[in-house]
## 1
Amino acid sequence: MPRSPRQTALSRTRMMRVLLESPEPEFLLEAHNGLSARIAEDSGARGIWASGLAISAQYGVRDSNEVSWTQVVDMAEFMADATTVPILLDGDTGFGNFNNVRRLVRKLEPRGISGVCLEDKCFPKTNSFVRGARQPLADVDEFCGKIRAACDARHDPDFCIVARTEAFIAGWDVTEALRRAERYHRAGADAILIHSKHPEAREIRQFAEAWRRRGPLVIVPTTYATDVSAAMLSECGINLVIWANHLVRASVTAMQAAAERIISTGSVTSIEHDIAPIDELFRLQAVDELQRARQRYEPTPHRRTVIAVGPDTPALPDGWDPRWRDVLRQRGFTQVLRAGDNAALFLDSLRDDLTPDTLLLPASLAISAAVLDELTASDAPLTVVIDSAAAGADAADAAWCTGPDTGAAFPATVELRGLGTPPGGGCRAAHGRWIGALMLRHAGRRWLADALDELRPAPGFGQRTLADLLTHLLASRRVRVVYTHGRWSTATPAGRAARSDAAMSS
Ligand code: SPV
Ligand code: MG
């Protein structure tokens, strides 16, 4: 889901810094993968919190560093690719010591992440809300070393380092929270995240009052969300509010409801209108962008025309065997025209529509991909397909050529000499039968048009068939032969069944 940056002069890191230092409270919305990040941005969120809890949950594991740091970085990269707004990554404890923190920062910057939040607990951490869990705090000096290492590792001075103290979570009072925050601030943190699991915002208020706006303040009101108001935020001087887990929780509820209904009703019809249409997924995945890119970058196959000749043509090409349609389409035969039996007249009216490469063949006929490839590989202006498995001198489509079908891997060039009657008379055995396929390339289209013009004054012009046209051409033009030994069939699925043993197997 590659997205181009929004029309803004600000880099993503700068945007994050603007949010972090905003005098009015700003908000980050949680996301946990590319899709949820895209949804968050679509909703109007100005920034995203790449939550450790939510990323762990979407992997189906605990928020206890069970997800490796590289998996977190990979997911953050997907989120950045899917969005243009700034992303603050929940970096937990930094996944190790100062050295791991430096490495983390160096990996995040080039992946489009705008900042990292580091918390003063011990690796492996436990989510702050897990009841009864021990939440040992990190040594302050050691944690300050991580903050300094993170600041020194960034190349972009706007990449934000947020220091989070878990003092309240670990059961300490405001004095300890303040002592820690003060040290982290002095170590270079761009903002302090003060966390609390209290059902009211009491601890946050206490801390904010003592903090006295010494630097940007960030909060995560999950347990005390109902105690948060515009007045409270401005009173406490809160710069940034993180709604830390609401999209992952919303998705759990939606998935549980859908799964329960599908299994209990044994059907998906009852939920069809309550779930996103597939097209909405495509929109979120920016499928249209790929379609446009395809048109721009993929080579356009040489456009070719196929003219289906015959009276009883079904709705073409829809009535054709899908495999035959694919064979044609893959070889650039994207324009399908129809012609009645008196092909001469029809062709006359279509003359201007013909692409330089045009294949004429009975509407009911499908030839194997290999034979079609041989036809399109022929550089002769006119090439016909002769079935050497169907010999017989008396048929109107009996064909006499300059040589027989040798079946050789690299056969010598063979040309058509006579159709219906042997060249120069006599009753020599035919080399096969013309199956009705004629490929026009290069000057072939003009040759055909000239032949039509030559035949036009003659009586019965309107009844001329393609075979008549070909016979006329043989007098003055060279017509190349591609031999097949069977390997053709009927073009419609029903017809295929009827003919399969007779023709396809040969
Ligand atoms: C997260 O979203 O992973 C957080 C916030 O760190 S909390 O779950 O409240 O600890
Ligand atoms: Mg977390």
## 2
Amino acid sequence: MTENTTELTIIQPDDWHIHLRDGAALATTVPHAAASFNRVICMPNLVPPVKNVNEAQAYRERILQSLQLSSVDAERKSAFDPRMTLYMTDHTTVKDIEMAAASGIVQAVKLYPAGATTNSADGVTDINACVEVFEALEKYNLPLLLHGEVTHDHVDIFDREKRFLDDVLAQIIIKFPTLKIVMEHITTSDAADFVLAQSNQVAATITPQHLLFNRNHLLLGGIKPHFYCLPILKRESHQKVLLDVATSGNPKFFLGTDSAPHATHAKESACGCAGCYSAAIALPLYATAFDSVGKIDKLEGFTSRFGAQFYGLPVNESTITLVNSPMQVPSSFDYFDNHSLTPLMADQTLPWSIKA
Ligand code: DOR
Ligand code: ZN
């Protein structure tokens, strides 16, 4: 370590939005997540999706089994706590919600408008038909996590989040004013302003890619498939507002990486998959984003306090130390079936790293 190095010790973070996938993928994704995070909210968009408590319990056990088989150290193994979500469909029942609330392992219910993103074909087709389920979520204080984009063919991909706020979310909030809602992975100033204008029941997660990049990074000088995720990166003015709110110390905004593994070949394709893989380097990425606007002092609230506060959970007792000593992001990770997994910012140097 050089004498100019700054260390930053923060409460151990949690990731309130992650995709770990299933089966052999877990051997890569789980150790990466467990190295940095204690609690992770595991997205349910498997094939087939995780629709009820039994499926969530079985998925959680597969995640923990994979953790036990990994080389993650004993302390991280015991700290890692996958919190589960149910995938809401047109057939989700009040009973499903009651059982989820009683389960102790289901942290929230995820709503994908059908067709909005990866593995969302079984998502909700008519939000107006979900009244009883929303009432049950409200009753049991179980948060509703939203992929907040409309899916109509005629709505431009860059406008889909704003249209969701105006046409869908505003109505949900009027009808269910005490429902806890997280607008996941917000990408626009419209979403930031919308969340700011609501009660403390409404919060948002923000990914590292939406803080560090904008659509120029995706499209200028050639299409960069590893920057392609949904909701898609927006223009720079939106990125700036996201950085403003993330670093503002407002507890409505907290960490959710949306780390979403897709094998390198499936992204570098004529029809590439949506998702940025960031789990292994998420903390250096967020530190880099916060430091870029002189707000590294606001990192801990965003990574380690506000999400727990929103979910009514204690903050973690352990800590992790970041250091502004550069790291090189690996060009790829091994992934199952002899595939590889290319992380966000592969081969690039980040100014912050996790202290060994
Ligand atoms: O980019 C994304 N990838 N956005 C999502 O909403 C889903 C995710 C995935 O599951 O790969
Ligand atoms: Zn996601």
